[in-house]
Recover the amino acids of this structure.
């Protein structure tokens, strides 16, 4: 992971024109609006992370892993059409593990580091990027996971759908943000949204499927090597049994 992170910092110099809305691209009014919307989630996320780490300090390493997973995946920019690029988001795993509020902090910090280190995104557009990737995506992942577990009880399918659909929703929200800021002269918001969403969909649908599969692979690894932490989070069956024995 260290070699990959070094490559991303040093080698990835192409400007991003995708889910990470670039610096200065949004009008000031919309940039401020999305900052105001995102900040309450960040504050609540800090409280959530504080509770998690105080109650179970041994989960700090798993929190760091969730953040690193998001950083690496969301930094893998892949060419799209009309000069844009697409990338996975990596927020589904952390949302399932720690909840969407915790991921609002981890995801925002990832976006901040990428803006500063990779010129990927920006500071003025951080609020908008955080809302789409660190807030909307994780909330979608969490509720999709909960719904699928309630409907089917099949955990791997639930994790796959949570990661893949959260990835897609992130790009839908970004398309909404761009369409609101730049409505088309003919057709307004709807025409603009169709244009932005259509550009992203070409590459993002297969990327979302790939992210879902990769997240399931990482989940399998966590089950094999960190079962105690997953038990603490009540994500595997061993947790209720250990409670009965205490």
């Amino acid at each position: 992971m260290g070699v990959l992170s070094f490559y991303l910092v040093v080698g990835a110099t192409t400007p991003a024109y995708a889910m990470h809305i670039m610096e200065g691209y949004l009008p000031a009014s919309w940039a401020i609006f999305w900052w105001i919307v995102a900040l309450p989630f960040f504050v609540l996320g800090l409280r959530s992370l504080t509770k998690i780490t105080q109650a179970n300090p041994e989960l700090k390493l798993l929190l760091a892993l969730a953040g690193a997973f998001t950083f690496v995946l969301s930094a893998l920019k892949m060419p799209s059409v009309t000069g844009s690029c697409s990338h996975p988001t990596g927020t589904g795993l952390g949302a399932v593990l720690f909840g969407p509020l915790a991921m609002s902090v981890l995801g925002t910090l990832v976006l901040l580091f990428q803006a500063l280190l990779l010129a990927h995104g920006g500071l003025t557009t951080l609020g908008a990027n955080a809302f789409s990737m660190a807030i909307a995506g994780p909330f979608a992942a969490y509720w999709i996971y909960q719904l699928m577990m309630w409907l089917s009880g099949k955990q791997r399918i639930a994790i796959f759908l949570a990661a893949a659909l959260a990835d897609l929703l992130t790009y839908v929200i970004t398309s909404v943000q761009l369409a609101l800021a730049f409505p088309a002269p003919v057709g307004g918001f709807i025409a603009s949204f169709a244009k932005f969403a259509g550009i992203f969909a070409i590459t993002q649908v297969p990327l979302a499927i790939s992210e879902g599969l990769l997240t399931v692979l990482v989940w399998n690894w966590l089950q094999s090597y960190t079962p105690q932490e997953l038990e603490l989070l009540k994500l595997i069956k061993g947790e209720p049994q250990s409670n009965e024995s205490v």
The two ends are 38 Å apart (CA to CA).
